Amino acid sequence: MAYYRSAGAVPPKRHTQHRDPETGGLYFEELMGEEGFSSDSSLLYHRHLPSAMVDSRVWRLPEDKPEPNHPLKPYHFRLHDLFPGESWRQADPVRDRRTVLGNADVRISYVAAGVPSPLYRNGIGDECVYVESGGGVLESVFGSIEVGAGDYVVIPRATTHRWLPTGDAPLRLYAIEANSHITPAKRYLSTYGQLLEHAPFCERDLRGPVGPLLAEDVPGEDTEVYVKHRVGGGIGGTVLVTPTHPFDVVGWDGCLYPYAFNISDYEPITGRVHQPPPAHQVFEGNGFVICNFVPRKVDYHPLSIPVPYYHSNVDSDEVMFYTGGDYEARKGSGIGQGSVSLHPGGHTHGPQPGAYERSIGAEFFDELAVMVDTFRPLDLAEGGRAADDGRYAWSWSGRGPQGDLG
């Protein structure tokens, strides 16, 4: 999204000499840009060579063989079960993510973390990380962003960054890792990238990095950076070692940088009758969209039925992360805080039994959920298989292959 920012010391003209006022030495200019110099970019000015490295070794990513959703059925995953008890205290927000679902366009993972992550760079695509609860700081080559419950944090591809949990509670992150860039829904944007009047949020709601970070905050030599990258048609991991710390930026400017947006600043679009999911969209990437359902006034036609109508996902898989409030349509299914439901293409789904009639007359829904719709089928990864409740598919009928659910 073309929204210009400038921070720190930058020269009056790009691609010209920029020198350290104390030593007279040149700073090193780095262009971080998308789509081969043809889209959004930023210029960063480093104290040291940003391309210098002294070692490269394999980062062995967790071995996982995602399984197709076959035979077809919906699922309910209890993500809090992935980090029981005090296990979060030893987990970091990057290396201990557990992948729940994924396909060739996007991977969805979850982590409850208590220790800082290493420096990390995703060279495959942008990340949109939703903070379920807890607090922390995202530090990057651009500066720092304080984050808390309800924040979406959008991190451009190849941004070197790290997560620092704060407080004595887990930093719970729901990570959406794309194989593409992630932008606000294009119908909200002008030709030149401004959020339009009908958009449910605007530039005032976005929080950019504070900084850049000061020299004394980034000491050390031979610094490790964990990198996810493309390899052999799949995903590989490498640990690059740089002779100086990557957070040596004295200034930057441009339209490409991490930013945070809190879900409480999303202004819901409502109507007299039930609004379809595109009315709740916030971001999109290649092959998927991200929507959110927030506390809102609901349908006010005198004969309206506020909960969703039953619907078939003809072209998409629907993934809903329930992160707050009381989700009316799912009452009686076992879904609660930290749950994820998967409603795959080819399956007709909708409210749980009784919710349809029960919603009539409701004027307000106090619910909070993040939805990802994908246009290619999602496979079940290790985290999803481990968190499956084993019962959800039969919750509409009250019985499954073993009989009454009880």
TrEMBL record:
Chain ranges of the Cupin type-2 domain: 125-176
One Pfam short name: HgmA_C
Region (Disordered): 1-22
Homogentisate 1,2-dioxygenase C-terminal domain sequence ranges: 305-364
Co-factor requirement: Fe cation
Protein name: Homogentisate 1,2-dioxygenase
CDD domains the UniProt entry points to: cupin_RmlC-like
Superkingdom of origin organism: Bacteria
InterPro entries, A to Z: Cupin_2, HgmA_C, Homogentis_dOase, RmlC-like_jellyroll, RmlC_Cupin_sf
Family the UniProt entry places it in: Belongs to the homogentisate dioxygenase family.
